[in-house]
Design a protein that fits this description.
The protein is about 5% helix and about 40% strand. By secondary structure, the chain is mostly beta strands. The chain has an eight-stranded antiparallel sheet with strand order 3-4-5-6-14-10-9-8. Strand 11 and strand 12 form a beta hairpin. It is globular, with a radius of gyration of 17 Å.
Amino acid sequence: MPAATQGGGRGGGAGSATLGLNLSYRTGAGEWINLTQRGPKWTASPENGTVTYANDGAQAPVRIVESYKTDGGVLDWTIDLERTGKTPVEIGDLGISIPVAGPSGENPTQIFERGFLRHQFISGHGSFFYFVRASGAPPFLLVTVRPGTKLEYAGGGGGRGGAQVYVHSGRSGGAEKRGTWRQAHTTLDLGPAGRPAARPPTASACNGPTATRNCAT
């Protein structure tokens, strides 16, 4: 993955390059709450290429489980959300951020070979974005949505050249007054505890030989 000097979202911080989950929710008619820390519970299975993070669902109205799986060529990132109690829960923002080092530095190698540019197409279920070195030379990092997942909005984050894209953007996108946005800004109402978890954001990423390789399965 392209390196970065600053992270973003849950799990990201100054000096780190961490995939970030950006999530805000409210219970009933309460105030919006931003989740800023990745779940403390985690398990790993090196032989299966999987890592899973989860928050303490018993102490929060929303249970969040992040699952990462790779075969060495493709990385699947799946996020499961579930309401833990009887109080209605509305997800206002649900997005991911990918920190990337932009094309900057003191010499051509840093700028063109270690700096990356992002290209994106935000169009619902057909959305994708990819990163390419400023020189244009391969390989490329392509990120696609899996079947049943869409992207509707893109915002700042992840450093220069980084990506912050939203599956649901009712809070952040709805507050943007500059210009217009052709995708609707939506929210998500989580069902009662005990029902199957909502699985809105599932992303696949790969290092393909060309920028047109489709890594979704």
